[in-house]
Amino acid sequence: MSIFEIIMLLCFGFAWPFSIVKSFQSRSTKGKSILFLLVVLAGYIAGIIHKFFYSYDYVY
What we know:
- By secondary structure, this protein is mostly helical.
- Helix content is about 75%, strand content about 0%.
- The chain has one domain (about 5-55).
- The longest helix is centred in the N-terminal third of the chain and has 24 residues, at about 5-25.
């Protein structure tokens, strides 16, 4: 497991629970915070980097 894969898993692992708590506290699901979107984006980027540098294969 590479550092990029770990970053991706941590970002996704933390982003959704924080989003759910924020939505529950505000009693609204209207829009999501920029921080949430940046964490999800960082997770995707880390996953892509991992795929290119550590596990380059075709996904079926």
